[in-house]
Amino acid sequence: MNKILPVWKYILVLFIPALLAGCAAQNPQQLGDLRLLDWEPKSMLVVKETEVLKPKFPVIDFHNHLRRLEYTEQYLEEMDKAGVWMTVSLDGNPENGFYREHLDVSRSVSEDRFLVFYRPDFSRIDEPNWGEDEAMRLEEAVGYGIRGLKINKALGLTHRDATGELVKVDDPRIDPVWAKCGELGIPVVIHVTDPKAFHEGPVDRYNERYHELAERPEWSFYGPQWPSKEEILQARNRVIARHPETIFIATHMANLPEELGRVSMWLEKYPNMYIDINARISELGRQPYTARRFMIQWQDRILFGTDTPPDAEAYRVHYRFLETDDEYFDPTPAHKQQGFWMIYGLYLPDEVLEKVYNKNALRILGKFKGVN
Ligand SMILES: [Zn+2]
User: How far apart are CA 144 and CA 100, in angstroms?
Assistant: First the structure.
């Protein structure tokens, strides 16, 4: 017997599958349209989360920027909250005597918790005898309380002299300055080049730091108009080799955290080379087995630094990373988002922690000879 379906059942039988088919055809397209920059996956993992409010040993933050002097008291409050003993500000710019003002303000807030490093003025490099004169100005600054030198990545990458040529990191005109640091017993914190992803490929779908470069395209140094990262790193290493009496802290894991094997070779080769973990826990924490072995092997040559104006929460992410074996957590609050990955703690032995937190820094600062 033929069943005659009521009209509404025809509608259900014929139209609903058609509707569903329509949705199925549409959904993947809509899903695929999610922009990479909007993707914020929430981890479903249930794993141990350790809260580390204070470090196991007092911390010396050897790499920071405290040039916003009006916040100096606030910096100290955050340092107290997070168990930070001393912070190095690398912002001792000589322009308009700023480093003096920086030192005055820092001292007025605390006599012994802030250190300020000097930045040479490369804009004057064309002056005859610039190297000797700058070395003299540095000595004078040390007399005023400066305790180190800072070089930023413009050297070798963007800074040009009067002839229009890039000033290379190993430009002989700078030699008197490097030598003076050795003579005075002050370290050089040297930053050259940026992450590999900023130099070694276009900003495209294959770039592992795509989201940052999409936001800040001026951070990309890829293309024939730029010197290669490798060239600059080699020039830095030549300077380190040429000035064995001077201590160089090659910041950001010698600016090659992506290749710790090579950093190891350099540390072996240059006894006056030190490194800091500054703003690179995202790189270290995605290779925790290699990073842990590396930190244990080079425990006497690694310093702690954050590059993040004192902030208790940011410090605590660093402590969690160095002290615990917590897994798969977000390093972003430690500095800023760097790459689309989570990190894993290194649970470093106490002996190593103490060296990285303060002993290595104290040993370097202890080499200070001062001015006559
Ligand atoms: Zn910095």
Answer: 7
Decide if pLDDT at 25 tops 50. no
**In angstroms, rounded to a whole number, what is the distance separating the alpha carbons of residues 179 and 181?**
5
In the predicted structure, residue 39 carries a pLDDT above the cut 90: no
Convert the pLDDT of each residue in 247-304 to its tens digit.
Answer: 999 999 999 999 999 999 999 999 999 999 999 999 999 999 999 999 999 999 999 9
Q: What's the CA-to-centroid distance between 331 and ligand 1, angstroms?
A: 17
Ligand 1: distance of its center to the CA of 24 in Å?
Answer: 50
CATH superfamily, with its number, for domain 59-309+356-365? Metal-dependent hydrolases (3.20.20.140)
Q: pLDDT at residue 4 above 60?
A: no
Where does the pLDDT of residue 338 fall: very low under 50, low under 70, confident under 90, or very high at 90 and above? confident
Q: How far is the CA of 307 from the centre of ligand 1 (A)?
A: 5
72, 105 in Cβ contact below 8 A? yes
Distance between Cα 64 and ligand 1 center (Å): 6
* Distance (Å) from CA 31 to ligand 1 centroid: 39
